[in-house]
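Researcher: Sequence recovery benchmark, item below. Answer with residues only.
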């Protein structure tokens, strides 16, 4: 017996049911919702960018556009932890590899400067493991038409195995909280 199957909807899947007859089904969609954990908005005046405490999530995305008010190396730390041996990172800065161990923060600014830096951080974290971090950084090098931005691809780790990241702070190269220029912004999203 030949029967004509009516047309299905866009993205429907053809299946054979328990009696051997074909039919169209709409696939179920599995999704995770991103939650805004912190959004500083653009700073109207110079000030610090510190998220304060937020709920832990398995995956965190951080977007930062910022410039230090006083020349230093722009950096990031988690849970207000500036312990000298908690951070290690390897980064490829404009084609040159750097490896840094036992640091008090993750320094991603190239030089001592007040340059604007745009960065995106992807963090996966689980309880009882180190926190794995990928950073993608673009740093302003000047305003002339021949001043090309610098790029940095970073792999980093926060060695804390007891806590999940529940706070993010922008710092100087020593891990000290400092002021960022007006117009700076940090946005943090989380999903579990």
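Model:
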């Amino acid at each position: 017996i030949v029967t004509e199957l009516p047309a299905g909807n866009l993205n429907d899947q053809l299946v054979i049911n328990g009696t051997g007859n074909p039919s169209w089904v709409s696939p179920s969609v599995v999704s995770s919702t991103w939650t805004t954990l912190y959004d500083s908005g653009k700073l109207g005046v110079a000030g610090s960018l510190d998220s304060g405490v937020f709920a832990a999530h398995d995956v965190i995305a951080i977007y930062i556009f910022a410039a230090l008010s006083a020349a230093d190396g722009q950096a990031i730390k988690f849970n207000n932890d500036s312990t000298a041996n908690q951070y290690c990172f390897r980064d490829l800065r404009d084609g040159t590899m750097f490896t840094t161990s036992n640091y008090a923060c993750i320094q991603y600014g190239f030089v001592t400067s007040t340059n604007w830096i745009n960065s995106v951080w992807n963090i996966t974290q689980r309880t009882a493991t180190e926190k794995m971090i990928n950073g993608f950084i673009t740093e302003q090098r000047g305003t002339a038409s021949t001043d090309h931005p610098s790029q940095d691809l970073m792999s980093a780790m926060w060695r804390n195995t007891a806590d999940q990241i529940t706070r993010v702070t922008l710092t100087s190269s020593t891990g000290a909280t400092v002021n960022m220029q007006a117009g700076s912004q940090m946005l943090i999203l989380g999903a579990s």
